[in-house]
From TrEMBL:
<dbReference type="InterPro" id="IPR005149">
    <property type="entry name" value="Tscrpt_reg_PadR_N"/>
</dbReference>
<dbReference type="Pfam" id="PF03551">
    <property type="entry name" value="PadR"/>
</dbReference>
<dbReference type="InterPro" id="IPR036388">
    <property type="entry name" value="WH-like_DNA-bd_sf"/>
</dbReference>
<feature type="domain" description="Transcription regulator PadR N-terminal">
    <location>
        <begin position="19"/>
        <end position="92"/>
    </location>
</feature>
<dbReference type="InterPro" id="IPR036390">
    <property type="entry name" value="WH_DNA-bd_sf"/>
</dbReference>
<protein>
    <submittedName>
        <fullName>Transcriptional regulator PadR-like family protein</fullName>
    </submittedName>
</protein>
Amino acid sequence: MLGIDTECIVGVMSVKHALLGLLESQSRHGYELKHSYDEYFTQDKPLNYGQVYSTLARLLRGGLVEESGVEAGAGPDRKRYAITEAGVTDLANWLTKPEEPAVYLQNTMYVKVVLALLSGREATAVLDAQRTTHLRAMRELTQRKNEGDLTDALICDHALFHLDADLRWLELTASRLDELAERVRAS
């Protein structure tokens, strides 16, 4: 398993909309939805069955899915769920609405650098430690990308591009550290 949080890799995903999207092609029961979700979206951190069924209950109450039958199984009977027209409309609206870019104008790395300067600690040590952590994560992601399938490659590329941007910021900040230190001391 990677030494980084998988939520950072895949970002915050709408489980509701993912389940609606999986139901659009065919009706399914919760067990099938959970396995399809895990296959496509979360290889490192599988979706909890409780989350599948609580989300299905909310979708059912909201009129976005409906029960479409019951199958007998080895255990309890399994309810099948199908997306409704309202669910298709909700999914279509979500799919066509662009996500707001995550802009981090005041992020933790910046705060740590400024606090290190304010406290008289070595801000370069903060930047170096962060750079080392980012490079380790990039190596792990690159290995996963090279050993995985297309899904892994796409997920890892997204994360690698973000880590690369962070590394560029670390380098730029290191080159401006003296100027930042002067401003911090002057305020």
